[in-house]
Amino acid sequence: MKSFFKFTFASILGVLIGLLLFIFIIIGIFSSASAEKPVVVDANTVLFINFESPIVDRASENPFEFINPATFSPDSRMGLDNILDNLKKAKDDENITGIIMNLSLLPIGMATLNEIRDALIDFKTSGKFIYSYSDIYTHGSYYLASVADKIFLTPTGSLMFMGLSSEVIFYKGALDKLGIEIQVVRHGEFKGAVERFIYKKLSAENRLQIQDYLNSLWGHMVEGIAETRNINVDVINQLADEMAITNAQSTLEHGFTDSLIYFDEFLNFVKDKTGTEEAKDIQTISLKKYTKVAAKRESKGLIRNKIAVVYAQGTIIDGDAVSENIGGDAFAKAIRAARRDSSIKAIVLRINSGGGSGLASDIIWREVKLAAELKPVIASMGDVAASGGYYIAAPAHKILANPNTITGSIGVFGMWPNAQEFVNEKIGITTEIVKTNDHADFGFIFEPLANDERAILQNEIETFYTGFVERVAEGRAMTYDEVDQIARGHVYSGADALKIGLIDDFGGLKKAIDIAAEEAELEEYRIVKLPKLEDPFQKIISDLTGKSQLKILEKELGENYIYYEELKSIKEMKGIQALMPYRLVVR
Q: Hey, where are the domains in the chain?
């Protein structure tokens, strides 16, 4: 007994010591975060850009957001909002001489890439230089690098310039082996989110739409490269078809790069351009650190008038989720708050979502519609704003997207698994149901849907689809038939969406804010970001208890982590779904 108490006391003491250490760490992080002073930029400084982590639309102000809970190491993830602000700030900063970029693999969506590229082009109007260097360029990193005054590549580096491709994974064969049937009810021949579970290959309709938007994305990319590198579009496509550009020497021969040099030679080149002595280092500042540089204030005092930017990023789900998904209730509350706040004169709804719950989409739609009746509402589409992501944008006065934004997918579906064969035949488990009414066991996964149950579900899908189309028709000033012809689950690029009236203009977040200010007749305003992010203490506790495992898994799986996320999201699907056909992976 004495030994028992000794070990128990030792365990309790260990827990208390660990808890105290944890609290001291938290206090230390908060203290260092709050004690940070604005960074001062010296004269003749070069802004250094190197994107290594995924870019989110909105940068978190939480000091724990950039700490990996699995390792307690910093996470270099940045927000597009900060990147765009930094590039605008650097353009007017007399101490910033130019930009150097070290680009290779870019974990960035196509539309996000385009917004950064446009901001770099705007930066060049200042007359300052942009130089790019890399060991390996991909299609995406080269597209971004193509705005540079000069592009450099390691002599043994590479650029495999062959065009874009997209892959779709099908689970039908595996489900057949397991004896599991996915029962599908849908509207729209293009609503391909279910095809992964009922087919082993693409339907003709889905293959058509994938080909269409890949062509559109590629066409926009090629046109951008052709313009900045002064190479004919047809020549670029011919080079891609012939696989003529695969190594460093071929990039130089065909005008894709300006020089093949090693990194030390690149640094010497920049030293010469900045007048830096050979024995000294180039004065640089990272894009992330530059965020802490105070911007010049254009007015004195606090500006009362505000524009609210409401960030909707992730899958649309029921409930209150905010940080990584779009919780219907939480986002409705944020938009409602912006509507009721008299100091908020306009709302920009920034959407980066492939959709999700039909119910949550409708709840958000209602609040966007009410807000649009009182003040200007501008929708800004990011990499993807499709299905439910388009649903919530429909009431906006204007909808902006990039040419390579993925949008549309106006359609709905529902999925119900039938695992009867799996449990009965494969693993030998049998079930028996006792019920009070004929359909009290509806949705039970160990038996198939009855014909009348399927008919009821189909009616629910048709009803929701009709409402979806009506909402789009109302928001876009189109007839039901006009929307129905371009709906049916069809996915479009932003370039094609403009032609058929689903969006009003091309542009990113900055342009959307400018339009919102113009519509609200504002000359001076400040930006407020909604919804409010969760409390930092709650965030780190949830990260340590739950997300640390996901961080470890994400690190181990690398780029294949997206498939784990896809399977996980399937498990969470409930009710009618307004969702993209699948996660778009463009290679």
A: 45-161+245-290, 306-579
364 contacts 392 by C-beta, under 8 angstroms = yes
Neighbours of 557 (CB within 10 A): 13
- Tell me the pLDDT tens digit for each residue of 191-248: 567 788 888 998 888 888 889 889 999 999 999 999 999 999 999 999 999 999 999 9
User: Could you give the CA distance from residue 222 to residue 233 in angstroms, rounded to a whole number?
Assistant: 6
Q: What is the distance of C-alpha 300 from the center of its chain?
A: 35
* Cis peptide, bond prior to residue 581, ω within 30 of zero: no
CATH number of 45-161+245-290: 3.90.226.10
Please tell me the CATH superfamily of domain 306-579, with its number.
2-enoyl-CoA Hydratase; Chain A, domain 1 (3.90.226.10)
Cβ partners under 8 Å of residue 447, min gap 6:
418, 420, 431, 433, 441
Model pLDDT for residues 36-51, shown as the tens digit of each residue: 567 889 999 999 999 8
**Integer angstrom CA distances of residue 565 from 32, 166, 583:** 34, 18, 10
What secondary structure does DSSP assign to 325-360, as a single string? Answer: SEEHHHHHHHHHHHHH-TTEEEEEEEEEE-EEEHHH
pLDDT tens column, 86-100 = 999 999 999 999 999
E strands, 117-268, where?
129-137, 150-159, 181-187, 259-260
Q: Which residue has 């894709």 as its token pair?
A: 256
Q: pTM of the predicted model, to two decimals?
A: 0.83
CA pair distance 429, 431, nearest whole angstrom: 7
Q: Count the Cβ atoms, other than its own, within 10 Å of residue 232.
A: 9
